[in-house]
């Protein structure tokens, strides 16, 4: 897997509104994928805070890319559960969305996502996910 392959998966497998988040594949390793979620006025609410809906969509997207990285190819899947905790606002900086596979079996996959500020490195959102592998 390469960063270019992960980046190419975004327009191939995700809806146009997800593509409008302008996510960029930043890094990956054997267990995780990290995306950059750029700060923008379109994704911010009052006070310049990144909205929770954008963070949840980025977390879900990052986990699908982590599954692609894990399996070496796209496998159809669907989100069964996405549990999100917002720890603090993210303002005036991009977010780094790191999705890590906890376990991937034949029918289900489990993961954790940490979103942190790209400049200060502080965690702003944590999520856990379950996916059905189709």
UniProtKB/TrEMBL annotation:
It comes from the Bacteria. It comes from Ramlibacter humi. Residues 52-122 form the Thioesterase domain. SUPFAM superfamilies: Thioesterase/thiol ester dehydrase-isomerase. It holds the Pfam family 4HBT. This is PaaI family thioesterase. One of its GO terms (molecular function) is thiolester hydrolase activity.
